[in-house]
TrEMBL record:
Keywords: Signal. This is DUF1311 domain-containing protein. Residues 1-21 form the signal peptide. Residues 70-146 form the Lysozyme inhibitor LprI-like N-terminal domain. InterPro entries: LprI-like_N. It holds the Pfam family LprI. It comes from Paracoccus alkanivorans.
Amino acid sequence: MRLLQLLFAVAGLTVSAPVFAGDASGLDPAAIDRCIGAGEGGNCADAGMQACREYAETKYTGDDPDFVEKNCLDASHQAWEAKLSETYQALLDKEAEAGIKPQEMLRQTEHAWIGFRDSLCDYRADAATAREASGELARLECQRDEAARHWALLNARLRDMPE
């Protein structure tokens, strides 16, 4: 997450800081890698979530009924943001090595994507709140899902680039 924040800060963008996850979240980012390695690709947004929930339920003793889910969604979102940041930088590097000059276009595209993601997730949070569901959970799930989806797009672009 910090690398992604640094990349976005250099580009003049902002990313909200994580709220719930930490080293004790119970989410194993390797579960995402195993899912991707098994060929699941775009269906891996939820990877590691069940184990995280089970772990967090044994550790959390507070009175927030949504804490476990918030914790795991935030941790999963952070893991996907880290993968996204890594892939984004690799794509920039590979384009530079290939002599491709539209790196500024890639940066602009990422900036536009962040705006799209934020608007979409705000909409989902507002819609959930209107249905008397947790807007915070809807936002966290949306952020995680959109990061995973965008990672898959950038990763496909990276894979398709000539060596």
